[in-house]
Amino acid sequence: MVFPRGLLHYQINAGGNNAVAIVSFSSPSPGLQITSFALFGNNISTPVIEKVTFLDAPQIIKLKKVLGGSG
Hints:
Order of helices and strands: HHH
Structural class: mainly alpha
Radius of gyration: 15 Å
Number of helices: 3
Distance between the termini: 31 Å
Strand content: under 5%
């Protein structure tokens, strides 16, 4: 799999067996993206975040207020 820089992603092993992943970065210092700020600290609309997470709208709005997001 190839993930573009800055794209939030996750992986889940849906099978019943152990899984192995080989990871490679494009540079020796690939950086860090903190998911809570990436989801709630910007202007992504609340309905979109509801579809991506298991949170309801009041919880998302509360987190956006704490982390400085809007929308």
